[in-house]
Amino acid sequence: MPRIELLSPDSMSPEQLRVHDSIVRGPRGRIQGPLRAALHNPELAERWSAFGELLRYRTSLTRRQCELAILVTGRHCQSAFEWYAHRLEAERAGINAETIEALLRQVEPTGLDAVEEVVVRFARELNALKSVSDATYADALRLLGTTTVVELTALIGYYTMVAMTLNAHEIPLPDGVTPAFALPQESLR
To answer: Cα–Cα 20 to 30 A to 38, which of 5, 15, 21, 67?
Structure first.
């Protein structure tokens, strides 16, 4: 059960409804996850949505690269909703079940190309260490280039914010969906 009210269109202020409708008309096609919380501040939701759209849809990262980094981040942050939503997106991007299961178990996936492998390694290190090793950074620069490394770092940071928002407000999974792993809140109770 969420810790805050999740607004429905009929309970929104005119400004909240304007932002809601704008997001629904965009590439997401709906409002779910952290934007449901952010709508309590329409300006925050509007800017959050724009930043997320930029990072997901308008960078030099491929869809597969984005989803690999997001899954690593969602799993590291123990965000069941982020994992659920992006597991589906990863499948749509052609990431195989074995790779997804390896990321869920937090073990090295096999069968990735060199670029995807460095994306996973970069995301793992940045999440775990709050930075990356010189070797990983050099490999990422060599394989991705400066702009893409900057975009990858921003994507990981953004999805960390997404995960923390989902976790803190206990944004629920859709009805009938079981979390893929134990929720962080369970250990705090």
So the answer is: 67
